[in-house]
Amino acid sequence: MNEQDIKNNIEEEATEEIIEEKEENIESIDNEEENIPEEILHSPSFEETEDLVKQRITWFRKWTKDIPNYIHSFHVREILKENRFNETVQMAGLLHDIVEDWNTTFDELRELWYPEEVIKLVDLATHNLKTKDKFQRWKDMMKRLEEACDRNARAIKFADICDNVSGCHTMPNLKKRKRFLYEKCPYFVEQWNKWFWWTEFYLEFLRRYHKQLFNFVTFEKRLAAWKVLWILIWISFILTVWLGCYAWYKTNVSLMKLSLTIGIGIVILMWILHIICFRIPHKTEY
């Protein structure tokens, strides 16, 4: 056997070894894929989940005419992402409202291959709609979260409340807004204080809450001042009308002119006061 034949045999053996090594690698990859649960292999991406949320969560946010409802779910996911929670928690944050408010079932989520961990977090963050009183629903949920001892589920609900606080200035019903700020939020602060004390997550919630509370107190003061001034102006207007009637009865032209001037001035003052108190917006957004 000459030198050239030896070289050819060595090359052939090396080639066969490389081929065998590649086949072994492919076989090991196939075996690994077979061992991966199907729910992970087929689990939807964030883009697919966003499309699902947009499809299921329709209409606009409460008390607004131009903010889509699904934006809230996106905000919850962003808050969780900013606070470095993993992708499973972020995915559950995107889906946290889809079962509670939009006629989607947990079985449907399973059929769409969402992991059980995501479904479990969504379940813990979902209200029991059988309870009629909304505040009691919150208390029941806080109790479930307390018993579950699941920090990720608590974080989802915390992010949910955090975004709701940012948008509570759009509530047209002052009684509901006052109850939310003076009853619900202090209750949440008490809970979050136990679970997320002195974290950036907790401080961000406090910042948003205090901002809205300050704005609401300011608005209440403006409303109270407007009511008092409105009553005084109406009393002045009635007295002016009485003065005008008296001047007309006495045929006193100068007194009639004076009462008419005062009456017009009061009407203008009422309109200016209305604009100052309600038409000029006060800062509430972030």
What does this structure look like?
With 286 residues, the chain is mainly α. The chain has three domains: 3-35; 46-166, Hypothetical protein af1432 (Orthogonal Bundle), CATH 1.10.3210; 220-279. It is built from 13 helices and no strands. It has helices at 3-35, 38-41, 46-56, 70-82, 87-94, 98-101, 106-111, 116-124, 134-148, 151-166, 174-195, 200-249, 253-279. The N and C termini lie far apart (85 Å).
Notable characteristics:
elongated, 76% helix, 3 domains, 286 residues, 13 helices, single chain, Hypothetical protein af1432, disordered C terminus, mainly alpha
Provide a short characterization of the protein structure.
Helices cover 76% and strands 0% of the residues. The protein has 286 residues and is mostly helical.
Give a topology summary.
Layout: H1 3-35, H2 38-41, H3 46-56, H4 70-82, H5 87-94, H6 98-101, H7 106-111, H8 116-124, H9 134-148, H10 151-166, H11 174-195, H12 200-249, H13 253-279
Helix pairs in contact: 4-5, 4-10, 5-8, 5-10, 10-11, 10-12, 11-12, 12-13
